[in-house]
């Protein structure tokens, strides 16, 4: 990946562990004074870094994290305050650079500690799964600002936690702690704060040892579950499942199992 200095994020490529392992991307949201409030500069950079990792054949997956105190406390209220409708509409407020994350075909893990509020919760939900520290707090407090969630909060949250809890959070603006978020299905695992990065690393390293084709096909197929009726989703899955039998990685993965050795995937 081309080295580039960013102003609002920190970006690293980290090696996976084990022979033949791919690398993984590590992106830290880094506007500490504003609790990582998401302004245009940060979202442009996040999109650019995600797309660069997505295009890098040596990278299997990406971790997005924030600080201990805040994954991100939402879209930048200082920036949004003066907008009127014509400007919001014409300039694509909270859309143009926020939608980039949806173009990424490799798995993205959100490693969340502290506040993940408003746009922060929405960015975490746009990732593929969330690992939370025990101090994480999720919420859609836009109602307190006289607006509604604008980056998927009213759509992804009910899909993740069901209608009742999504309505509760978006209508009252209350925060949900990590335990409640795990119970509700928003996050996949909760770990002590001190172990968050190690846990995200472990998950990323596991993926670095797998076939990139299979990782990307898995992501595409699970995402399809939210876009199609069951019969169409099952057909889509079956087509991808059959397609993978034309890959060298399928022969290698199954061959290695039968020969009782570790597989060496070539991502072909
Ligand atoms: N935008 C801009 N600045 C923000 C911010 C945000 N979303 N969240 C926090 N900050 C700034 C604060 O203004 C403060 O700056 P100053 O030091 O210059 O005063 C700094 O970050 C630290 O914040 P606090 O002093 O408020 O810290 P706290 O620990 O007392 O409270 C908090 C933390 C509860 C997260 C509180 O900061 C807060 O409520 N933030 C706003 C949360 C919010 O409403 N998010 C939704 C935004 S709208 C949105 O995201 C729309 C969408 O759907 C995309």
Automatic annotation (TrEMBL):
SUPFAM superfamilies: ClpP/crotonase (SSF52096). CDD domains: crotonase-like. Pfam families: ECH_1 (PF00378). InterPro entries: ClpP/crotonase-like_dom_sf (IPR029045), Enoyl-CoA_hyd/isom_CS (IPR018376), Enoyl-CoA_hydra/iso (IPR001753), Enoyl-CoA_hydra_C (IPR014748). It is an enzyme of class 4 (lyase). It catalyses: a (3S)-3-hydroxyacyl-CoA = a (2E)-enoyl-CoA + H2O; a 4-saturated-(3S)-3-hydroxyacyl-CoA = a (3E)-enoyl-CoA + H2O. Keywords: Fatty acid metabolism, Isomerase, Lipid metabolism, Lyase. Coiled coil: none annotated. GO terms for biological process: fatty acid beta-oxidation. The keyword Lipid metabolism applies. GO terms for molecular function: enoyl-CoA hydratase activity; isomerase activity. Belongs to the enoyl-CoA hydratase/isomerase family. Could possibly oxidize fatty acids using specific components. This is enoyl-CoA hydratase.
């Amino acid at each position: 990946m081309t080295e580039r200095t960013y102003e609002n994020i920190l970006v690293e490529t980290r090696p996976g562990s084990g022979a033949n392992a791919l690398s993984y991307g590590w992106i830290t949201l880094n506007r500490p004074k504003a609790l990582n409030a998401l302004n245009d500069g940060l979202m442009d950079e996040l999109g650019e870094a995600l797309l660069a990792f997505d295009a890098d054949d040596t990278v299997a997956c990406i971790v997005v994290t924030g600080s201990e105190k805040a994954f991100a406390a939402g879209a930048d209220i200082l920036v949004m305050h003066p907008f009127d409708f014509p400007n919001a509409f014409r300039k694509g407020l909270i859309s143009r650079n926020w939608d980039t994350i949806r173009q990424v075909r490799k798995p993205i893990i959100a490693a969340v500690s502290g506040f993940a509020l408003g746009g922060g919760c929405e960015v975490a939900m746009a990732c593929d799964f969330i690992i939370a520290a025990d101090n994480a707090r999720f919420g859609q407090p836009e109602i307190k600002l006289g607006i509604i969630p604008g980056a998927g909060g009213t759509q992804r949250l009910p899909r993740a936690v069901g209608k009742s809890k999504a309505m509760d959070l978006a209508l009252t603006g209350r925060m949900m702690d990590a335990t409640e978020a795990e119970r509700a299905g928003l996050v996949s695992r909760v770990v002590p704060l001190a172990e968050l990065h190690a846990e995200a690393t472990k998950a990323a390293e596991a993926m670095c040892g797998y076939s990139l084709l299979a990782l990307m096909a898995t992501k595409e197929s699970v995402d399809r579950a939210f876009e199609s009726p069951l019969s169409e989703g099952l057909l889509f899955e079956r087509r991808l499942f059959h397609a993978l039998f034309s890959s060298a990685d399928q022969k290698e993965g199954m061959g290695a199992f039968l020969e009782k050795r570790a597989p060496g995937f070539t991502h072909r």
